[in-house]
Each structure stands twice: as C-alpha cells, then as structure tokens.
Q: What sequence folds into this?
C-alpha cells in the first residue's frame, strides 16, 4: 500500500511512455502484486468493475431463484417438496430474497457506477493524473472486498432472513447464530468504503480540475458523481452508527431500539431511512450522470439546459435528506406522514427537469443508434415509468393501499434496475473502448439490449398488476388467481438473464478478440477522449488544457478525429437558444 | 492521507524543506489544501456518526424524562466529568500550540506539545476507566439486560428505565473513548515524525490534520459532558 510509483515517467526517461496502463510489468506474480498494490485509479476502477460484476451475478442468481420459487403458488420448486432446493421452503425463500436485496444494494448498486466507472473516468474527465488520495482509494477497495466477504459468508451460512433493512425487533430477537451481527458489521465496513470513495471524489473535483475547467465546464457526469459523493459522505455515517448500535444491542442487550429493553423500534426505522433514502439517490444520480453523456455524445447535440441538469443533481442530493419518512407512512404519526408526503413530491421536480432536458437534447439531434444510445433510450422509457409510479406511492392515501405490495417492488425495480443498471450497462458500452482499448460487437450487444428490455418489462410490469390486486411483498406463496401473472414474470426473468449473459459473452470476446479501439470512437468532446485508448499510466502526456465545453459539438472538432467525421445535425436542427 | 518520506535521495536540508508533493499534484500547496479539505469531510462524517447518539439521547429522554433526570444525578459524578473536560481542553490548547510551532519551525516545542497532549489523552482514558467504568461494572450499573444494580446510592432506587440511560451513556462515552485512543496513537506518530524533523513552515500537513481531528474529538466531549453529567 505504501509503494509510491517512481516519479520517472514524467520527469526523467521516456521509456514505456506510450504503454497502456495495464501493460505487463514482468512475470505473473509480479503483475498480481502490481495490481494488488496499485494506486492507479484506472486499475482500481477495473478491480471495482470486476468485483461489482461478480456481486451482480450473485445477486442476479438469487433473484432467479426467488422467481423460480414463485413460479407456482405452493412453496416448492417444480413440485419438489423433499427439501432438495434449499430455497423452496419459507425460511429458504426469505434467505434467498435477503441475499438478493442485500447483495444488490450494498455490494452492487451503491459502488457500481461511482466506484467502478467513476474511479476510472473521473480523473480522466477532469484532466488529472489520479484522484486526490490514491492510497485511500486502494484502501477503500480492500475494505469493500472484506465487507463483501463478511456479507456473503454471513448470508450463505444461513440465518439472515431479515431482508436488507434489518428492522428491529425481529433482527435482534431471532438471531440465534450471530449472523445478523456479522451482516450488520459487513454493512458497517462497506459504509467506510463508500465514505472514502465519496471523500476522494469531492476533493478531486474541487482541487484537480484541468487548467481552464471551471465548474460549469465539467461534464455532467462529474456533476452527478460530485452530488453522489456529497450524499455518500453525509449520509453513510448515520447508517454506520445505526448498524453499530444494532450490533451492540445484539451483543450487550442494551435498549436503544429493542422494545424488550425499553428502546424504540421506530427510532431504528428513522435512523435507517435517514441513510437509506439518500442511498437511493447514491444509486440513481450517477446513472443520471451517465445519461447526460450518452445522450449528448451519441446524438451529437449540445445538452439542453446544462446548468439546470447540473443543479438538479445537487437539488436531488439536497432533497434526498428530507424525505426519509415516506418509507414509514404506516409507522409514524399522521402529521409527519402528510409532511413527508408533500416533501416527497419535490423530488419529482429536479428528476423531471433531467428527463425533459434529455428529451429536448434528442430533438433534431443526429442520433446514432449505438448500444449506449439504445440504453439511454431504455433508461428514459423505464425511468419515466419508475418515477411516475413513485408519485403514486408518495401520495399518502394511495400508499396506504399499495404499501408492502408488489407495486412497490415493481416501482423500485423500474428506478433501480430500469434506471441505474441500464445506465450502468450503457456507460460500460460507452467507455469500454476507452477502458480496455477494444471495440465490442455492436450487433450482438444490441441484441442483448433488446432481450434485456423485453425481459425486464415482462418481469416487472406484471408486478404492477400484482401489487394493485393486493399481492404482498416477501411471501413465498400466493393465491391461485395470481399464478398467470407470476409465471409471466418468472419467464421474463429468464429472458432478462439471457440478455445479461449475451452481454457477458460480448465483453469476454471483445477482451480476447475485439478490434483495436481508436482513441475517440464516438466523437466525444470531454477530456477522457483526448487520452489514448487505453490510457497511459499517467493518463495524459501533457496536462490537458480545456478550450471548449464538453458538449460544444457545433463549434469544436472532437480530439483525434477529422472535421466532419461525425455528422452534426442538419443546420436547421441546430439548437441555438 | 499525508505522505511518508519518498524523496530521501540527494537533496540537502530537512525533510520538510525538500518535501515534494506526490506526482499527481501540481504543487505542494494544492496537496496541502486537498488534504485539509479531505480531513474536514472526514470530520463531518465523525460528527454525523455521533449525531446518532445525540439523537437517541433526545428521543429516549423525551420518552422517559424521569429516568434521565434522576439517572444523570445518581449514576454520574459531575466532578470526574469536569476534570476530564479540563484535561481535554488543556490538550487541545497544546495541539493548537503545536500547529503554530510547526508553522514557525520550532521542532522541540512542537514535539513537546504533541507528546503532552497525548499524555492528557491517556490521563482522560485512565480517569474514565479507573474512576467510572470499573466501579460501575462492579456495581452492576451496566446497560440493558445486563443491569443488576440493586440500588444503594443513599435513598435512590433504580427505576425500570435507568438501564436505558446507562445504555446511552456507555455506548456514547465508549465510542468517544475509542476515538481518544486513536488520537493518542496519532499524536505519538506526529511526535515521532516531529523529532525526525519532518515538519516545518513549508510542510506540516499531518500536524494540521491530526490537530483538527483532536479538536473535533474534544468538541464532541464538550457536548457529551453537559448532556450526560450536568442536565438535571
């Protein structure tokens, strides 16, 4: 961890000056050691990418198991009642959805975009050599890995069946083997990883922008990551103290949350959601940042309303801290619920500003239907459904009917998966040539995107119906009338999984046999496209100077491209507002 | 967050005079400012962490006002708390002097004040452990279900909710004590580096940041003390 890269590449010899950042340093073990001790943000970003992909695969497998169990009303899988399938019992089902929820939230979505793509791209887009605190960055990766191991082991050993929220008193009363303790400790550890990443990004954005880059010359992805980082720093400590208190409560039987010893379980819910609602925006904001990049670059249009999109990110971050009570409409007083309901509607304003501005950017743009753009369109479609159904749930009276039903499940999957995961996939395709220096197979990637879109809607749109019909969350069984809808949903989950596997295959074949990528395959204007593909160890040969905005497609020629190589919209379509 | 010696070769002068920033920074000033900004962000997370205790204190006090009113008087000795407050305030003054000494290049004054502050931190912990925690443990004045205190402070008989007050007391002061312990180690690290001549007017990032940390730990105690010991 304390290895400092020899400060040679810049100052002294020019050997290996053009080698990609991942160039081999020697034998196998030399390379492994080099990666394990690297403080290069690009390598750390790639390590995060592989780690979160593995978590995504694990959480996805658990989701498939959950859907498989729900294929028929009875608590069985394919009629089997022998216990051959460990998740085909009530308890096993609880564990399977806890595994799915906890892994997807804490191990995948929260670190996915900021820690993987953000780590790789943030310094490049700012024109910097690295993040502000490179060693802290590596440290946060190790903390993430340790916390993940804690979490997965404690779930797989059995015993954690609380859902990802660990509500008291259930989580402290029925924890026979101390596995909820292990799980909450894992969340505590993972929280530190998130905090360190957030601190690093805030300071990097403040202090390491390239010469000439003012706050309003930053790509909008940076704005989104910056807003996210602020939430990470300000919200995560509250989760830290909450799960710490939960752990202490479990071990020493103190009474802060547990009513058996005089504590207040609603206090736990307040603490938990004070973090976990802002955490929802930790999940979605980076996706929105990616959206701004995808839409502008692949439609070759200056983003519509740059400042509004930038400020709406900060607006969402600010509002995120005052709406936690809408998770507790049935657990708090009427007045508080009414106030939180009203505040919740505020979130719709900056979110809608973003959606309208992206749509306006597309208007008369020169749209290239590449995989990143297709994912951006999927995001627009799915996020709009997710966001609007959020308004239903934010309305107090409607929520009284819909709370704890599949409607809620469908809503947050449309936002989290239809929003964040789609943006993540679009972002990976967008920056894949930059990260690994290889192009992917566009045709197969588009096919995979199509399957994902169809499978996703089959899986989750049905759940809106199930929810309004009264199907409650978290049950392994249901009445016979729901069978058809549940089966459509389960078949959809298989199509969705097939789409993901196609993406995986596309990535693997690209890594081993893909065409070499040019430095600027999409004609982007932000600074990461000035670097080589893949970037050299110090990112840029000379510190880049910013001379045009990140979206000035009308005026500036993208780096490494010929004038006219990327078609601009027809002249009458130019947005000269 | 701060740099371990990397540039030993060749240049003359003490470490702080020849210190060169890490390669991704443009100059030493940027690096210093960034480290300080990072430290402030970290301290913000610390305050938020402790805000959980304060929040629990206020909510539970609202539910069980009698228990909290009685308990703070019966279980805690404000004199011990006051001594500890004084000890921490003195150490904070030492740390402030140490930062100034680093800026002025007064190596020995810097080292002395840092080590003295760490002694104060140790004194704080010893007073806490020997005069508060241990007697409480022996008397069964421990939180939650472990509470076995039968009564015996004169007329006072424990109410059913006293264990809740003690829960808040133990958890918050123990967490604070843990932060003091970490601070002591950090001060030793600073003192050791100061003796080696690492800090001077041109480079004192670590002194500044550890100083900030120590002040915040002190500040948290300033709030814990009246809430737990003084408020009737």
A:
């Amino acid at each position: 961890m304390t290895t400092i890269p020899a400060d040679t590449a810049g100052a002294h010899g020019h050997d290996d000056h053009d080698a990609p950042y991942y160039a081999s340093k020697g034998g196998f073990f030399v390379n492994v050691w080099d990666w394990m001790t690297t403080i290069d943000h690009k390598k750390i970003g790639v390590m995060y990418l592989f780690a979160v992909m593995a978590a995504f695969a694990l959480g996805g497998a658990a989701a498939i198991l959950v859907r498989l169990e729900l294929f028929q009303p009875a608590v069985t899988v394919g009629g089997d009642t022998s216990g051959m399938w460990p998740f085909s019992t009530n308890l096993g089902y609880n564990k399977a959805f806890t595994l799915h929820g906890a892994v997807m939230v804490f191990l995948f979505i929260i670190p996915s975009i900021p820690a993987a793509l953000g780590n790789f791209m943030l310094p490049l887009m700012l024109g910097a050599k690295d993040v502000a605190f490179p060693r802290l960055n590596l440290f946060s990766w190790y903390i993430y890995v340790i916390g993940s191991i804690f979490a997965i082991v404690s779930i797989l050993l059995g015993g954690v069946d609380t859902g990802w929220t660990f509500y008291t008193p259930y989580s402290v009363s029925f924890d026979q083997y101390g596995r909820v303790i292990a799980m909450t400790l894992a969340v505590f550890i993972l929280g530190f990883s998130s905090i360190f990443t957030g601190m690093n990004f805030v300071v990097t954005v403040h202090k390491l922008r390239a010469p000439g880059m003012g706050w309003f010359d930053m790509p909008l992805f940076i704005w989104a990551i910056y807003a996210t980082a602020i939430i990470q720093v300000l919200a995560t400590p509250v989760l830290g103290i909450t799960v710490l208190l939960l752990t202490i409560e479990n071990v020493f039987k103190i009474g802060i949350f547990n009513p058996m010893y005089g504590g207040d379980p609603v206090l736990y819910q307040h603490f938990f959601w004070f973090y976990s609602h802002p955490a929802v925006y930790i999940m979605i904001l980076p996706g929105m940042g990616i959206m701004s990049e995808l839409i502008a670059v692949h439609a070759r249009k200056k983003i519509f309303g740059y400042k509004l999109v930038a400020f709406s990110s900060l607006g969402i971050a600010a509002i995120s801290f005052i709406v936690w009570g809408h998770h507790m409409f049935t657990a708090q007083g009427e007045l508080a619920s009414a106030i939180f309901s009203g505040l919740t509607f505020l979130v719709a304003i900056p979110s809608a500003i973003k959606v309208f501005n992206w749509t306006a950017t597309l208007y008369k743009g020169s749209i290239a239907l590449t995989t990143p753009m297709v994912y951006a369109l999927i995001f627009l479609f799915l996020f709009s459904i997710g966001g609007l159904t959020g308004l239903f749930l934010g309305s107090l009276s409607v929520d009284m009917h819909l709370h704890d039903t599949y409607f809620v499940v469908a809503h947050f999957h449309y936002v989290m998966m239809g929003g964040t995961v789609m943006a993540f996939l679009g972002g990976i395709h967008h920056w894949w040539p930059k990260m690994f220096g290889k192009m992917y197979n566009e045709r197969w990637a588009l096919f995979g995107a199509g399957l994902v879109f169809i499978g996703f809607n089959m899986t989750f749109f049905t759940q809106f119906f199930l929810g309004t019909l009264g199907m409650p969350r978290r049950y392994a069984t249901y009445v016979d009338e729901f069978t058809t809808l549940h089966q459509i949903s389960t078949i959809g989950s298989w199509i969705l999984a097939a789409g993901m596997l196609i993406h995986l295959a596309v990535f693997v074949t690209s890594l081993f046999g893909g065409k070499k990528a040019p430095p600027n395959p999409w004609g982007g204007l932000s600074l990461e496209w000035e670097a080589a593909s893949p970037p050299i160890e110090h990112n840029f040969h000379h510190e880049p100077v910013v001379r045009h905005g990140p979206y000035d497609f009308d005026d500036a020629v993208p780096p490494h491209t010929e004038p006219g190589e990327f078609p601009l919209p027809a002249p009458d379509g130019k947005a000269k507002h | 967050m701060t740099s371990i010696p990397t540039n030993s070769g060749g240049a003359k002068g003490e470490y702080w005079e020849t210190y060169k920033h890490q390669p991704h920074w443009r100059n030493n000033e940027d690096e210093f400012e960034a480290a300080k900004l990072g430290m402030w962000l970290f301290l913000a997370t610390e305050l938020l962490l402790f805000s959980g205790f304060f929040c629990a204190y206020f909510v539970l006090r609202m539910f069980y006002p009698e228990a909290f009113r009685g308990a703070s008087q019966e279980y805690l000795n404000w004199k011990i708390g006051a001594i500890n407050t004084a000890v921490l305030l003195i150490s904070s003054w030492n740390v402030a002097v140490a930062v100034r000494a680093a800026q002025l290049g007064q190596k020995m004054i810097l080292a002395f004040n840092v080590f003295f502050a760490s002694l104060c931190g140790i004194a704080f912990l010893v007073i806490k452990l020997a005069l508060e925690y241990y007697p409480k443990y022996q008397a069964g004045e421990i939180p939650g279900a472990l509470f076995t205190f039968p009564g015996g402070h004169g007329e006072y008989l424990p109410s059913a909710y006293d264990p809740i007050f003690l829960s808040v007391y133990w958890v918050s002061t123990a967490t604070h004590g843990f932060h003091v312990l970490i601070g002591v180690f950090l001060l030793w690290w600073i003192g050791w580096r100061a003796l080696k001549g690492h800090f001077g007017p041109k480079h004192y990032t670590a002194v500044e940041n550890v100083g900030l940390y120590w002040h915040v730990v002190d500040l948290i105690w300033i709030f814990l003390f009246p809430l737990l010991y003084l408020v009737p």
Chain B is about 75% helix and 0% strand.
